[in-house]
Structure formats: C-alpha cells, structure tokens
UniProtKB/TrEMBL annotation:
SUPFAM superfamilies: Radical SAM enzymes. It comes from the Bacteria. Gene3D superfamilies: Aldolase class I. Its cofactor is [4Fe-4S] cluster. It comes from Dactylosporangium siamense. PANTHER family: AMINODEOXYFUTALOSINE SYNTHASE, FO SYNTHASE (COFH). This is Aminodeoxyfutalosine synthase. Keywords: 4Fe-4S, Iron, Iron-sulfur, Metal-binding, S-adenosyl-L-methionine. Signal peptide: none annotated. Binds 1 [4Fe-4S] cluster. The cluster is coordinated with 3 cysteines and an exchangeable S-adenosyl-L-methionine. GO terms for molecular function: 4 iron, 4 sulfur cluster binding; 7,8-didemethyl-8-hydroxy-5-deazariboflavin synthase activity; metal ion binding; transferase activity, transferring alkyl or aryl (other than methyl) groups. The keyword Iron-sulfur applies.
Length: 388
C-alpha cells in the first residue's frame, strides 16, 4: 500500500469515518501488519479502553448427530456411527452441574441438526438446565441454523420457536452458522439450508425480542479477502438496523488431517486448503475491527487460534477473549495445535496481563462482574523462567 493511501485511511479512522468496501479490500492487501494492528488498536482502545473482557463459561454439545455434512466440519456424525452420541437431558444437566464449582456464568450450547430428536427436547433441555443451575448462569444456545431447523421439525415459525425458548430460559443465541455469507463461497462449504436470508431473519427477530446476540465469520479456507469484507459489511448493515449484535467473533478454519479417534477424514476442504497463518489471523482481526465500526466488541476464541495468536490478537483489535472453555468438541475434533481443553480463570488473567491489559470478567450481557489489577510491572521487569 502506498504512503498516500495509508495517510488517507489513517485520517478516516482517526476522524471516526466509516470505511468502505474498497477500503476494506485495500487494508487486506496491505502487508504492514504493525501499521494495521496500530490502527485497530486505536479503535479498540477508543471503544474499550485498556480492558480485556472475559467470561467463565461452559461449552456443551448435546448431540453430534447431524443431517448436514458441511465441508469443513469434523464434528458431525451420522446416526449409527461409532462415536455418534446424543445426551439425555438428565446427562446434560449432570454435566453442567459438575461445573458449578468453577463459578461459571454462561452455558454455551450448540448441536448437530439431529434427524429424529423431537422439537420438545430443546425447550425442555433449556428449562431443565436453567432450573438446575444458579440464576447467575445464562444459557446462550443454538445457532440461527438450529433455530431454522427447529422451524422445520416443529412446524412453528421462528417467532414461536424463539418465544418458547425464551420462556424456557434462553438468554442469547450463539453466533454460528454464519461461516461466509457470499454464495460464491458458501455453496462449497455449507450443506444445511440456512443462508444469509434466514440467518439474518432469525437474528433480526431475536434482536426485536430484546436478545443481544454474537455474530461470527469462519475465515481462512477457500474464501478471498473480498468475501471477508462483504461478510462484515452485511453484518454492519444489519447492526445499523437493529443494534442487536454485541460482539463479532472471527473464527479460524481448522485444517485437520485426520480425526483422532477413527482416522476418518471428514473435512472435505482438505485438498484445497491450508489454514490462515498467524499473521493472516491478526490481519483479519485488525481489518474486522476497523470495518465493523458499530459493534462494541471483537472477540478472540483462543481454542481456534492457539494461545499465542490469541494473546497477540488483543493488540490487533480484539478486546474480549473466550473463555474458560471445557470440552469444546466442534473445534477440538479438528485441533492440531495441542491447545489445552480448558483454561482456568487464573491462566486467562495471566494471558491478558501478559498482553498488557486489565482483565475484566463479564457476563453474557457484557455486564461487569469483577475487575482485576492490570499488568504486573515487576513481572514485566524481571526475566521470566521458561515454561516447559
Ligand atoms: S457445521 Fe453444524 S450443521 Fe454443518 S455439519 Fe457440522 S454440525 Fe452439522
């Protein structure tokens, strides 16, 4: 990128002017990562100060049985496959209860599109989980794809489905099922029936009912930077309309080689993909932060980025990190990084402080639960022992 264009874009960002599609594409074409990170850091600091948010949550996948076969997905199993599973509601409750001691504030639930589970299973699960857990634990559950599936299996409208789930205790949808909205890419990676029209319809509806929801983007597979830009601009437009997204989450596609348990390759994109490098990941965070000017938070999901890239993402536009995650199956079935299955509150605090920020624990609604001390100056001034 030539210096003239850099100065032009800087001026826009510092004046708080909205960036265009062309600006987004130009930013992706720029290899000056330090400059991009600096610009994004300026914006994240203006919006969120020196704070990095985190929450203590539990990811729960009640079934991995799915009628769809999305090209990138290593999680789904077909009925009868050896490690296909579906939890009874009591088992899901027992699992969630086993986490109580960790003071979680959020249960995050996504599932496969099970071909025969009745619709009633879902509101009953939410109700049972809410009844069993302390009132401080919010249930964030189901992608827009699942809500669309529930319409199909229940014969109800999304309006009725959401009303019933909210009545059972649902406090937020999850942001998944977005992947990349552009059909040019989407037709090759997504096998279910939920595309931009239905995804946006369902989130719009959720927002109209007072729910705040996250939104995501799966990047680093067969899409080009222009598709990432278009994806974010669609979400930005919807956000102009509803104001209902509280966070944007770029998710790095996992290029796996085999499933660790049965050796089967389920990822059909394998032959055509590698995976976004750390630098590409940081660029995606920075450009997303700069383009998506009307969303308050950008979150890094460390399970999909590894801890070191996640730490660096906090200096490239992200102000939120998820989370104390246990047993995150959808990603971990595809993980080659040896990232741990979970992080404790303490290791998360260390990571945030090491990146130079002040940790703040939040709940699902982004209300502050607890504030912590910022970086430890003494630790920064003393050489640290190597961790092995
Ligand atoms: S991404 Fe979701 S809908 Fe697609 S195959 Fe996997 S579990 Fe099923």
């Amino acid at each position: 990128m030539d210096t003239g264009l850099k100065r032009e874009l800087e001026a826009k960002v510092f004046a708080g002017e909205r960036l265009s599609r062309e600006d987004g594409i130009a930013l992706y074409a720029c290899d000056d990562l330090a400059w991009l990170g600096g610009l994004a850091h300026h914006v994240r600091t203006k919006k969120n100060g020196d704070v990095v948010h985190f929450n203590v949550n539990r990811h729960l996948n009640m079934t991995n049985v799915c009628t769809a076969s999305c090209a990138y997905c290593s999680f789904q199993r077909k009925p009868g496959e050896k490690d296909a599973y579906t939890m009874r509601i009591e088992d899901a409750v027992r699992l969630a209860k086993s986490m109580e001691a960790e003071q979680l504030t959020e249960l995050h639930i996504v599932n496969g599109l099970h071909p025969t589970l009745p619709w009633r299973y879902y509101p009953r699960s939410i109700r049972a989980l809410k009844e069993a857990l302390p009132s401080t634990v919010a249930v964030k559950a189901f992608t827009a794809t699942e809500i669309h599936w529930f319409e199909r299996i229940s014969g109800l409208s999304a309006d009725e489905v959401l009303d019933e789930l909210i009545d059972a205790g649902l406090e937020s949808l999850t942001g998944g099922g977005a992947e990349i909205f552009d059909w040019e890419v989407r037709q090759h990676i997504v096998d279910h029936a939920t595309h931009w029209e239905d995804w946006s319809r369902i989130h719009r509806l959720a927002h109209s009912k007072g729910l705040k929801t996250p939104c995501t983007m799966l990047y680093g597979h067969i899409e080009e930077p222009k598709h990432r830009v278009d994806h974010v601009l669609r979400l930005r437009e919807l956000q102009d309309e509803t104001g209902g997204f509280h966070v944007f989450i770029p998710l790095r596609y996992q290029h796996d080689f085999h499933d660790s348990r049965d050796g089967k390759i389920r990822n059909k994109l394998m032959a055509r993909t590698t995976m976004a490098t750390g630098a590409e990941a940081l660029k995606t965070f920075a450009v997303s932060r700069l383009l998506f000017d009307n969303v308050q938070h950008v979150k890094v999901f460390w399970v999909m980025h590894g801890l070191q890239t996640a730490e660096l993402a906090l200096n490239h536009g992200a102000d939120d990190i998820d989370g104390s995650v246990v047993e995150y199956k959808i990603t971990h079935d595809a993980d080659e990084f040896g990232t741990p299955d979970k992080m404790t509150r303490e290791s998360l605090l260390d990571l945030i402080r090491n990146a130079g920020f002040r940790p703040v624990e939040r709940n699902t609604r982004y209300e502050i639960i607890r504030e912590f001390e910022g970086p430890d100056q003494a630790r920064r001034e003393t050489p640290q022992p190597m961790r092995v």
